[in-house]
Amino acid sequence: MNFNLSINDAGVATLLFDFQNEKINKLDGNTLIELQQHLTALAKDGNVKLLVFESAKQGIFIAGADINEIKDITGKQEAYEKARFGQQILHQIAKLPFPSLAVINGACVGGGCELALACSYRIISDDKKAVIGLPEVSLGIIPGFGGCVRLPKLIGLQAALQLILPAKVIPGKKALRLKLVDAIYNHTLARDFIDTFIDKLLTTPAFAQQLITKRAKNLNQKLLEDNPLGRKLIFKKAHQNLQQKTKGHYPAPFKALEVIEKIHEMEVEDALEVELHGFAEVAITDISKNLIQLFFTNEALKKETGINDDSIVPAVVNNGAVLGAGVMGGGIAWLFSNKNKNVRLKDIEWDAVAKGYQTANLYYQQMKKRRKIKPNQIRYNMNHIAGCVNYNGFKQLDIAIEAVVENMAVKKMVLAEAQSKLPEHAILASNTSSLSITEMANDLERPENMIGMHFFNPVNRMPLVEIIPGEKTSPQTIASTVKLAKQLGKTPIVVGDCAGFLVNRILIPMLNEAALILQEGGVVTEIDDAIAQFGLPMGPFVLADEVGIDVGFHVATILEEAYGERMKVAGLFKHIFVEEKLLGKKSGAGFYKHEKKSPIRYNKNIDAILTFYRADQNISVKEFDSKMIVDRCILVMVNEAVRCLQEGVIDNPAYLDMAMLMGTGFPAFRGGLLKYADNRGLQSICDKLTELSQTYGERFAPAQLLVDKAQNGQTFYEANIEEVVTDE
């Protein structure tokens, strides 16, 4: 039994939810049946005056419906029936002959939020774990237990759309402001507040009426939402915003918007029926299955320690240092300070240290602009950063992260010098994007403490950190670094020590392939548009400008040295950087013009450069359609991803896909690079690669693992990652 029912002498029935043998409460099929039985019995009990929902789990009210059950849905009718079953049970709460109260002590999302919405009243804890919302569209579905119907009626149309469409969950204070909850309580005095609130509901009719009155629409809602023209404007603007943000690739938020617009003036029962049909349409799509798969992968990664030995306890890392105060160094220092960890920011000159401070402050100002932090908190956090040009205080550190120029000799010198100043237990990490960790550790006194910790730029926005052990890195160092990355709010993924590691090794060939297409006759904007239409956040040339053409060329050169002919740097790429000295955004011009206070625009000087280069190299110009552009750019990445699996750079296909998603913005709706290959068909991929190799060379020759899986009718996702996940 997952519910413990008690009824006191005052007629207060309490359903205490405690999902057996799980860390969370979820509304699976069996739990819903049990809830239905309780609700049916309670409705007939004339002594009950109030029903209270509480959770026995700390920090969790209800985490939603069982995602495994949604994942397994195959047909529209099945989707309709499953949602209808849950929807009808929650609707029973709304139709009870007495009021109901949801006491939200923690996460209250998805189906949990819909249960709370069906209640007469809601109160929420001020604990930071207490959040509420309807994030279903992030899984490719829409609220199907009544959320599309009840939330707009409760908090207004605009506010509801601003929660449902971007899949937002919000803390108690904002929920109270939006009138989504009726009160917020101090979690340290929870029982007293809850009991007092219940007593007032039962004994003071004016108190209950006051709560209802507070939910009245404000003037803005009345002006816009209570007239047809205003509503039409709201829905039109919402649709435009969705199109701009999703490029039409994600059907769920559009379906949620369509359902909410259709049901706005309907009676509840009719509206619930429309919601069911909307849910059924999106729950069976490949996009929903892909997004759910990514959810399971993300949950599994949260539990990863980076090692297979459970007896090893990660060290506590409190105090750190960053060596090199460039953009990356300043960003990493900001990250430490933002998580209340002390960090020393070292460089050889104070001017450089000042620039690191500027980067950290810039990130805080961006947070302030988005109302994520207050000025006094910025001052407090910045005090966690101590700039220095020497090694004073390094004997008290637990980790030092090197972020100097991408040059092996320079890195070795800095690392050796730093280790001599650190205590014996301290971890020494490198933020290198492509250089060998094993080689860096060769001359160190404690190579077991050396590890790669590759953050992505910009540090404040990119969630991934590649963790790269060298040959002599100890399991203790790996586990401690993985734990630190999680404490810093990042998703760490352990990868093998090879040139480019995982993400850059797969990404750079795509940038190089785009340059090859360009020199053969392609058009910069057409190539960028084709890749953006495929779903990547930006085309290869926009990305090259953003990262820095010099950085991209440098990494590409390292990959060519390591992997030979198949990663030979495009001649045009070299010409653009070496001869033309274009750097991209940092210098104001690359493939595009980057001028302050102006949108980026194509750099027409590229046309002259292309004409000269093609003539000099005797290149006959060809035309490329978007399909060929996508095949060459994306399949070269698929092929390299398969090689990474084949070589053991990473063992788990789902983790590889998540790394590409978080590190490059590979489109989530496609499920990841290898999921895309599975969905397209591995034999089809092999055939296309073989065809491309006959025209463009050996770099397209399909990897042996890809050939083997295609011949055996296998896929990369045969072993489902969700089997690893025991509590969603």
TrEMBL record:
Q: Which InterPro entries match?
A: 3-OHacyl-CoA_DH_CS, 3-OHacyl-CoA_DH_NAD-bd, 3HC_DH_C, 6-PGluconate_DH-like_C_sf, ClpP/crotonase-like_dom_sf, Enoyl-CoA_hydra/iso, FA_oxidation_alpha_subunit, NAD(P)-bd_dom_sf
The family database entries (PROSITE patterns) matched by this protein are listed as: 3HCDH (PS00067)
| Reactions catalysed, as given in the entry | a (3S)-3-hydroxyacyl-CoA + NAD(+) = a 3-oxoacyl-CoA + NADH + H(+)
Indicate the segments forming the 3-hydroxyacyl-CoA dehydrogenase NAD binding domain, all copies. Answer: 321-498
Judging by the UniProt lineage, the source's domain of life is Bacteria
Q: In which pathway does it act?
A: Lipid metabolism; fatty acid beta-oxidation
For this protein, the record's PANTHER family field holds: TRIFUNCTIONAL ENZYME SUBUNIT ALPHA, TRIFUNCTIONAL ENZYME SUBUNIT ALPHA, MITOCHONDRIAL
Name of the protein described by the UniProt record: enoyl-CoA hydratase
Gene it is expressed from: fadJ
